[in-house]
Amino acid sequence: MTGARSENPTRRPTISDVARRAGVSTGTVSRYLNGGHWVSAESSRAVTRAIRETGYVANSTARQLRTGRSGTVAFIVDEPPARFFEDPNFEALVREVGQALAARDQTMVLLLAGDEDSAQRAETFLRTSGVDGAVTASAQPEHHLFERIQAANIPLVNVGSPAGLEDRIAFVAADDREGARLMAEHLLSRGAREIAVIAGPEHTPGGTLRPGAFVEAVESAAVPGADARVVAMEHGDYSSASGQEATAAVLAAHPGIDALFAANDRMARGAIEALRTAGRSVPGDVLVGGFDDSAGSATDEPRLTTVRQDFRRIAEELVDALGKQIDGGVRTNVIVPVQLIVRDSTTRG
What we know:
By secondary structure, the protein is of the alpha/beta class. Helix content is 43%, strand content 16%. It has a domain at 176-309 and 340-346: Response regulator (Rossmann fold), CATH 3.40.50.2300.
C-alpha cells in the first residue's frame, strides 16, 4: 500500500475514503472522530494512518455544534523553556501528539509549567479556555499539576506512569521495566560484571521503574563462573551535564566498573564524556547503554545502544485514551512495548 493521497486530487477525501484505506467501517471512523469511544486501539491506529494518507479533514464547525466541544487539547510540559527545548524527547512527543490530534481535527495548545508561577498560569488557562482535556508530561510533584487539573474537572492523561497515582491518573507509558530488563540481560551477555546505574529524578519512571527493574534483573541473573552486581547508583536530572557529574562520582568510588546503564540517552552521552575524560574507552573499557533512542543515538560516536520508545504509538494511545475519557469518563492505563537497539557502545571487537 502506498502513502499516496486520494486518487482524484480535486475531490475532497471523505469518511468513506478513510474507512476503505483503514479497512474499517464508516461508523468506526465516525466514532474515532468523535472521541474514539468503543474504537479498539488497533482500529484507532489504522484510522490515524488512513487520515494521514488520504489527507482527510473533518468539518470541525459541524462537529463542535453537534458535540458542544472546543476540539482543543492542552499539552502541559512541566519543565522550564531551556530544558524543554534541549530535550529531543519533548520535541518528538509534541510533534507526534500534535499529529495524532490533527488526525481527529483537534488542536493542541502547548503550555510550559516549569515553575510555580507558570503552573498557576497553566491552571488559570485550563479553567477559562474551554479545552476538552489535557495531556501532561514531566509533572513536578511540588507544582501539584495533577491535583489542579483534576480540581478543574478536566479529563487528563499523563505521559509515563505517575508515581504513586497509577490508580487515580490515566497514563500511557513505555514499558520501562521491560526495557531495563532487556538492557541488563544484554550487558550481562556482553561480559558486564561491575555495573553502575545513572538514574533519573526520583519522582520519574527513569528514577524508579527503570533502575529498579535493572537492578532486579542483574541480581536474579545466573552468570556461570562470575557474579555480576550493580556497584553504584547515582541520580541525574536527564541532562548530559548530570550524566557527566554522576559518572565522575561513580568513577571516584568505583574505578573498576566495566558497564554503565543510564536511564536516558542524554545522561548516557554525558557518561561517555566523563569516561573519556578519565581515560576510559567506550566500549573497550566500559560498555554504555541508554534509554529512549532519541535524536543522535544512531549518528553520534559511538553509536549508542539503547531502548527504543515508539513515540508515535505512545502519542496515538495518548489521544485515544484521552478521547475515551472525554467521551465516556473511562480512565485507561496503557503500556507500550519497547525494543532493545544494539549499537557500537556495547559492541567489542
